[in-house]
Amino acid sequence: MDTRNALIRCGVEILTEKSFAATSIGDILGRLNVPKGSFYHYFDSKEAFGCAVIDSYAEYFAHKLDRLFGNDKEPPLQRIANFIADAERGMERYHFQRGCLIGNLGQEMNCLPEAFRDKLEATFVAWQRRLAACLREAQQEGSLDAAADCCQLAAFFWIGWEGAVLRAKLIGNVAPLRTFASGFFGGLPRQTRAEGA
Fold it and tell me: What's the rounded Cα separation, in Å, for the pair 91 and 103?
């Protein structure tokens, strides 16, 4: 299992940098100095390996979102800002060579195994649910309008966020992340207070 986990971790690293189509099994084995037979002992095919990598990344990222969006020591909207700041630091740490694995794969879906489609969409939906829950907390504390559609806002966030990550990777700068964040927070429907309240 250690070898299987190492293969998956390596796959996550590579696929945050390169496309699935351009990544060969040899690329992965070469990084780990693992014989080809070991790969096929754990995975029936490159497609099966890709599915395992998606599942692993989705689980890792879900834990990250739970930690950041579920941090009740911070106001809900600040938790979202903290997520964005964390992403900025992560992209800078890897010199903008790495992006979002789920977003990367989504961009090359036309040349990927069809089995990936449902996994990728399910991952985005799970992220949206977590963000929508955080936004509902913002409603409860009064920093977001009670009539706001939190599910729609969460869907909007992730659609825009993936584009911002792609652009940041393209230009090697966090400016697109900050532009998106400014637009997202600026466009949130805020709680209106009665005059004199």
Answer: 14
